[in-house]
Specification:
Its cofactor is Mn(2+); Fe(2+); Zn(2+). The protein has a single domain, classed as TIM Barrel. It contains seven helices and five strands. Strands 1-5-4-3-2 form a five-stranded parallel β-sheet. Bound molecules: 5-O-phosphono-D-xylulose (5SP). 5-O-phosphono-D-xylulose (5SP) binds next to strand 5 and helix 6. 5-O-phosphono-D-xylulose binds next to strand 5 and helix 6.
Length: 192
């Protein structure tokens, strides 16, 4: 058995006016984590900012800080090479995956960030596959376009942390979607 599946509904697809109850609903449906895009507050009208800001602060109080590294769609995998190995170029930040202060998770974006409901980019799976081969115990997260029709591609490439917004919040039975995605990750991990 490889790494544990962690299913993280993206709160970007939730009802923002009821953030706390939406979060609880997802936890009741079996979510392991709740994914929050902080960029959302930049898009809020000023009067709503305070309300959302307080909600988000309360929400974050219940969260564990996670040391991670994001790979945007156009970011090369070399960003997460160990420091000494890849060397640091003038404009590139390299992040240690192994060593004294390793990252705990690498997030491979599978859409351009901004909004939910976008199409999954299967070509990003090469990054996931390469990372998984190199780092068998690393938490590898994918975010964007994940749902019942795309989960197998991500799971088979080696992703174990799954961020999913519209497929979970838009489902008549979110618990069933969460469970299906967990099963796909568990099955893929059991073969690794
Ligand atoms: O960061 C983002 C998009 O910017 C994601 O967290 C989305 O919220 C995922 O939504 P779906 O693609 O699953 O609908």
């Amino acid at each position: 058995m490889g790494v544990k599946a962690k299913i993280a509904p993206s709160m970007l697809s939730s009802d923002f006016a009821n953030l706390a109850s939406e979060a609880q609903r997802m936890l009741d449906c079996g979510a392991d984590w709740l994914h929050m895009d902080i960029m959302v507050i930049l898009l809020c009208p000023p009067l709503l900012l305070l309300y959302y800001g307080i909600s988000i602060l309360l929400f974050l109080c219940c969260c564990r800080a996670y040391l991670d590294c994001h790979l945007m769609v156009t970011d090369p995998l070399a960003y997460v090479e160990p420091l000494g190995k890849a060397g640091a170029s003038g404009f590139t930040f390299h992040v240690e995956v192994e060593g004294e202060n390793p990252v705990e998770m690498v997030l491979v974006m599978t859409v351009e960030p901004g909004f939910g409901g976008q199409k999954f980019m299967p070509e990003m799976m090469d990054k996931v596959h390469t990372l998984r081969k190199k780092y068998p115990t690393l938490d590898i997260e994918v975010d964007g376009g994940l749902g019942p029709s795309t989960i197998d591609a991500a799971a088979e490439a080696g992703a174990n942390c799954i961020v999913a917004g519209s497929s979970v919040f838009g489902a008549p039975d979110p618990a069933q979607v969460i469970s299906l995605m967990r099963k796909s990750v568990d099955e893929a991990q059991s073969k690794m």
